[in-house]
Amino acid sequence: MTSRRVIVAGGLSALTFIGAGGRAADMADWPVASPESQGINKVALDGILDPAKILNLATSLYTLRSLVVVRNGFLIEERYYAGSKASTLRNIASITKSVSSILVGIALEQGKFRSLNQTIAELLPEAAARVPTSAVNGVTLAQILTQTGGFPDDRQSDTRGLEPQVLDVPLQPATPPVWRYSSAAVSLIGPILARAVGRSVEDFARASLFSPLGIGDYDYDWRRDAIGHVRSDSGLRLRARDLARLAWTMVDGGRWRGRQVVPAQWVAESTRRHIALGWQVGPMTNIDYGYLWFTGMLHGRVVNLAWGYGAQFALMVPSLNMVVVTLADAPGAKELAKQAAEVMGLTAQIVELAG
Question: Lower CB count within 10 Å: N or C terminus of the chain?
Answer without folding.
Answer: N
